[in-house]
TrEMBL record, chain A:
Superkingdom as given in the UniProt entry: Bacteria
Name under which the protein is recorded: ABC transporter
Membrane topology: Multi-pass membrane protein
Family stated for the protein in its record: Belongs to the binding-protein-dependent transport system permease family.
Annotated organism of origin: Jiangella anatolica
Stretches that traverse the bilayer: 21-48, 76-101, 113-135, 160-181, 224-244, 264-287
UniProt xrefs under InterPro entries: ABC_transporter_permease (IPR051393), MetI-like (IPR000515), MetI-like_sf (IPR035906)
Any one of the GO BP annotations: transmembrane transport
Annotated ranges, domain ABC transmembrane type-1: 77-287
Lineage, opening ranks: Bacteria, Bacillati, Actinomycetota, Actinomycetes, Jiangellales
Primary localization class, coarse: membrane
Gene Ontology CC, one term: plasma membrane
Subcellular location: Cell membrane
TrEMBL record, chain B:
Record's bilayer topology term: Multi-pass membrane protein
Classification via PROSITE patterns: ABC_TM1
Native organism: Jiangella anatolica
Lineage: superkingdom: Bacteria
PANTHER family the record matches: ABC TRANSPORTER PERMEASE PROTEIN MG189-RELATED, ABC TRANSPORTER PERMEASE PROTEIN MG189-RELATED-RELATED
Keyword terms of this UniProt record: Cell membrane, Membrane, Transmembrane, Transmembrane helix, Transport
Subcellular location: Cell membrane
Main location (coarse class): membrane
Keyword Transmembrane in annotation: yes
Cited Pfam families: BPD_transp_1
Membrane-spanning residues: 12-32, 75-97, 109-130, 142-162, 183-205, 237-261
Keyword Transcription regulation annotated: no
Upper taxonomic lineage: Bacteria, Bacillati, Actinomycetota, Actinomycetes, Jiangellales
Protein name: ABC transporter permease
GO cellular component, one term: plasma membrane
Amino acid sequence: MLHRREAEPAQPRPARQGPPFWLAVPALAFFGLFALLPLGGVAVLSFMEWDGLGTPRWAGAEIWLDTLADPATRAALWRTVVFVVVSFLFQAPVALLLGVFTAGRQRYRAAFAVLYFLPLLFSSAAIGIVFRSLLDPNFGLSRAFSPGTLSTNWLGDPDLALYAVIFVVGWAFVPFHALLYQAGVRQIPASLYEAATLDGAGRWQQFRYVTLPQLRYTIVTSSTLMLVGSLTYFDLVFVLTGGGPGDATRILPLDMYLTGFRSYQMGPASVIAVLLVAIGLALSLFLSRVSGSGRMQSQQAGAA
Amino acid sequence: MRRRIRETPNALGALGGLVWVVVTIVPIYYLVLTSLRRQQDYYIENPLLPPADPTLDAYRLVLENDFVRYLSNSLIVTVASVAVILTVSLMASYYLVRAGTPLSRGTLRLVLLGLAIPVQATIIPVYYLIVRLGLYDSLVALILPAIAFAIPISVLIIVNFVRDIPAELFESMRADGAGHGRILLALVLPLSRPALLTVGIYQALQVWNGFLFPLILTQSSSVRVLPLSLWTYQGQFAVNVPAVLAAVTLSALPVLAAFVVGRRQLVSGLTAGFGK
């Protein structure tokens, strides 16, 4: 492209030059007005007092100090950490194993893969409603078996609700990540497995020394999407529990919504939003750092 | 890989695979079964056994309660958003790939920065903006932010595709005196169809399933979209669980139809650019 421009300096006919800037203007206008501007707006609003109806009023750093000092915010932050970490520990291994499993060409695995895909047909709202009904202690799954076996109030018990939600979120998102891993495994050259077989490597050794190191980019991509995704995840938790019972499942995105749109305190809600953006960015950066060094290690492991 | 598999079947793997099949299937089986139950039987029958007296009453009730309107609202929002997303992203991608100026490189960097913006974190300013523009409680209010947040990933995927079009094709068209509009329509558009299909499917699912924007930007039932309607049905039908679940089942049918027609495209659309 560069040498072409040099070969034809300052051609007056527009058709001979590169495409004009206005082609990008519509996309930039949408992006700027409804994505970039709100991102800046949320930072500004986090210093303002606003009930969602009137005119926002400047309030300064007080809102930040109050919101950060609020035990409810800290509890929500800690709950979010638990939610993100446990979700990851549940989803990542299951998705990886299912991806490797469905990458096999056996007929029954292809049939299983079609069934694994089914949760992806449903919206988060739909999944939330199904599981609310299924986990109902009186009329749901509990009644399918002899009395008492499963009649736990999964979503109503403050000690269990967060983990029940994590399971349902996993049910909804594992299929997507399994698809990523399946595609990743299928790109691994068959010759690597043949060589490993000749070296006498068993199934576990092949998985450990061929499949895992070869999947490193997929692992990084999937893990980043999983961690950052569950940090900001809202829909399913909202429909399942609305943050309850009590505050048991009130993770940060829910805390933000409820503070802003139920308690009409848009200032503190914006503070939480800025926290979400900051934690999300820090997490992404951290992951790309860690995966940078992890990549070298797994390459060495693969070569050893 | 073939040979490895033939040696010994992986019994443990098959067992684990079967466990996840059960985990996946039970909720969906329960969903469909319950939607066919009579309301009064719901409280008596075993939830995992087929209804003694199956009925479509629940579906009739849902269809009589504006389901078709919510469905068409969802269709309008999805089709309009995806049409605009594809058009503006393709135009921008052509510019971003072929201009080769500092301005175009800077613009690309700015747009890709948008990949890191979490939609959820911007709902309060988006709400403010929509109210100020007088668009609150309209379908347009759902379409505008949907387009905006779709642009970074769409441009990323399409740019990667347009980049692979050989430079000679652009040059020979320009030598023939073709303008940029003509190059866009006759060269870029047909050659980037696979990328447009992927982006289209991915974004259609995003918009179709979207819940948060409809929740904060609309209110009236006349502009209610499907995912939000499921939530309101739950309040409206309350104890009539079969009716709520019939609505859920109906809401999945359009995507199921797409899955049956084009499974491969749907899968590649779902994983969008992430698969590579």
